[in-house]
Structures are given as C-alpha cells and as structure tokens.
Amino acid sequence: MNDERNxxxxxxxxxxxxRYEHYQFHEEQRTVLKPSGPSGHRRNQNSFQKKxxxxxxxxxxxxxxxxxxxxxxxxAADRFLNTGKSSVQIKTTDSVDLQETASDDSTxxxxxxxxxxxxxxxxxxxxMPSVVAITTVSVQEIPSFFGYSSHQYKSxxxxxxxxxxxxxxxxxxxxxxxxxxxxTTLTVCFAGGDVVGAEEETQAMASGDSITDSSDSSVDVDNxxxxxxxxxxxxxxxxxxxxxxxxxxxxxxxxxxxxxxSYPLNPVCATANDAFYEExxxxxxxxxxxxxxxxxxxDIIYGGREGKSFLSYEGAKEVGVEFYSLSKSYNxxxxxISFVIGNQKIVDKFRSVRTQFDYGVxxxxxxxAAAALNGPQDAVLAQCEEYERRNQAFCGxxxxxxxxxxxxxxxxxxxxxxxxxxxxxxxxxxxxxxxxGLIGVPGSSFGSLGEGFxxxxxxxxxxxxxxxxxxxxxxxxxxxxxx
Length: 483
Known about the structure:
483 residues, alpha+beta, 7-stranded antiparallel beta sheet, 4-stranded mixed beta sheet, 17 helices, 39% helix, extended
C-alpha cells in the first residue's frame, strides 16, 4: 500500500516530499500538439476564396434580376395604369351633416349633463366635438429605379386636429405639421363622436372613391369642408389650419360645447365693444354654448375705453362664467390668486374638478386679496394712467421715427408689426437687441399666427421709453433696411 500511495513521488535531500509533486508527474507525460504544415494553410485559404467568389457572384445575379423586375414594373405601371400627372383642386362643400342636437334646456344643463357622473368616458365624450378629422391630398414624385424618369402619384392621408380658437371669419384648428405638409387639397370633417369614421369618409372623398350621385354611397361628401393652412412650425411638428365660418352650417355650431373669449387680449392688445358681447351672448343662447371669459386685464385699458365684466351684460350669467386674476390690477403676480364667478351650475362643476388637484390658496394671501378688492381703488386707476402714458410715449415715439406701431388698446403690452425687410420676428428681435439693447418677445413665441409681430412690455417709466425710442432712431436700424 505504501508503494502504491507513493507512486510517482520523489523525495528531496531532506527526505521530505514536495507539495504538488504530482503536477510534475503529469507535466512529464503531456503531449505536445504540433501546428500543421504549409500545405494545410494553403488548402484553407483556397477554400475561403472559393466561398467569397460564390457569394459575390450570387449578389451580382440578384441585383441584376431585381433591377430588371423593378424597371419592368415601372414600365407596366406607366403603360397600362395611366399614372401620369394628376390635377387636384380644393373643393369647398356647403354643409356638414352631424347628429341632431336639438335641445330646449339651458346652456349649462345641456353641456354639463353629458358629464354628470364625472367618469372619464363622459369627459371624453363631452370633448369630442372639439376634435376634427383632417384629410390631405398631395402629389408625390417618385423616380424610376435607374433615374431616367419619374412618375407622379396622388396620395391621400388622414389625421386629426383640435379646435383651438377663432377670429372674425375663420375657425382655427391645431394639428401636426406632418399631417398637412405638402398638401394640395385640405379638408376637415367635424367628427362629433367618431373620428375614425370621419377620417375614413374624408379620405375616400379626397381620393375620389365616393359616388356623390349614388344613393348607395356610404360616404357622405357633405360631411367635410375645405380648409387652408394658416401657419406651420416644422421643428415642433405643429400647424394651424383655418375653416371659413361661412362654410360651417348650423348643425356644427350646435355641436360645440364652449367658447373661450378674452378681452383685453394679451398679446395682441385688442379690446371688444358692447356690440360684440351682446352678439356673443345671443350666439351662445342660440347654439347652447358655454362662454368662458378670461378677464385678467379689464382694469388696464386705454383711450377712454371702459373695462367691463362679461357678467355685466344682460343674459351673460345664463350662458357663462368669468375668470378674474389679481396679478395685474393689484400686482399680486407672485401670490397667484384668482377666482371664477357666474353661472352656478358651471361654477359647481369647476369646484368638483378643482378640489381633485388643489387644496386652496394660502389663507393670508386670501385675506390680502379680499382687502385689495374691498379697499380704495385709487391705486388701480393711477396705475392704469401710468401705463397709458408709457403706451403713448413708446408707440407715438416709434411712429415719429418711421416705425408704424399702433397704440395698445389694453393690457400692459404693445403688439408691434415687424418693419418691412427685417425678416422673421425672431430675427428682428435678435437684431434689435444687439443694435439697441431693447428686448422684446418675437410673435412666433405665441404660435404661428403671431409671426410678423413683436410684443413689448410697458414696464419702464416714460423717460426710459423716450430713451428707447432715441436709441432705435440713432442705431439706423430702420433706415438701413427700410422700404
């Protein structure tokens, strides 16, 4: 047993066995593998070259076959399908066929009843009349495979938009720039509760699939109106399109839920007269529309105009509410306190929503606001007079040096057109700052419809306003790029 246990082990001069001596035993018996000779290397190299050559040959054959097939398809499409140039025109339809919305209830009852249970589905349903379906038709030019010729194809696509406002003649709709980019035909369908169906109908109409003379047609071509692009922001993928109000029939107006109005209006510094509000209230009653009036600047108004509450007009409380902020009139901007008053049912619904994400304003701020509203108003009137003096000094001074800037009608701002020949509002804003030190806000910051204007704030006293006008005149900015 001792002989077997000591097999392969060695002893040194001291008679002790080294640790790990068994590794030496295996080391002595290991086998060394020798690399193959030159002939084996050549065989591997020849095999690789054959595979590479076969791969390249197959790729060339595939490319030639694909080219022939693609060119043949182009020729066949051009020869037999008659896909030449297309003539596309924008057509205006006269009516929009929506679900009937006749109701004898009050405006508040009609709008609020749809979301009485407060569910997400009810809120979504109530919001749907603000959503529209948009269909565009564009002509795309596709080159042939070898680049010898090209073909033009009419392409229809659809998207959606949201009604965001209006002006005297148009309804304004926000959408994505990629929806309308390159469009030669642009139509809008007021979708009601079925955006997908509206998109399908307007796309079919735009692509020529509808049969207007057939009673069997499933596409109602009267359910769309012509639109035009008002402005785009390619970088942010935004666009605003417009539909003529005269193209929108009464049924669509009846489907509207609310209208947001604000005068005096920031940033355009415009006001509205009594006739406007009287017509607005009559319109809201006729079509059962809620009016939401933002009245933040009613105490800063010029030219002998009188700032009024929307609720002071007869019938206003039946159709709407008014928001008022103490930030402007009482300089409580940092305190962020405001309130809403008007139709009780609308205010109650607003309270239900508000209490879900807010706990109320800090109590001392509320006491301060109450004191400001109930106290003497001399400071409010004096502040308005000071703003008007600045308005006259600034706008009148600019007109005297050749920049035709109208007086602001209200708010603490001035809305000035960019002088002719000075590029975009952003470009002129930067140039004005570099040449004179005057800082303004480019109109494009407020949306695509603001392009071509700049907003200035009347935050400096009259002497400073006069110095600003002088600096602009001495810079030669207006003369250098003048008319």
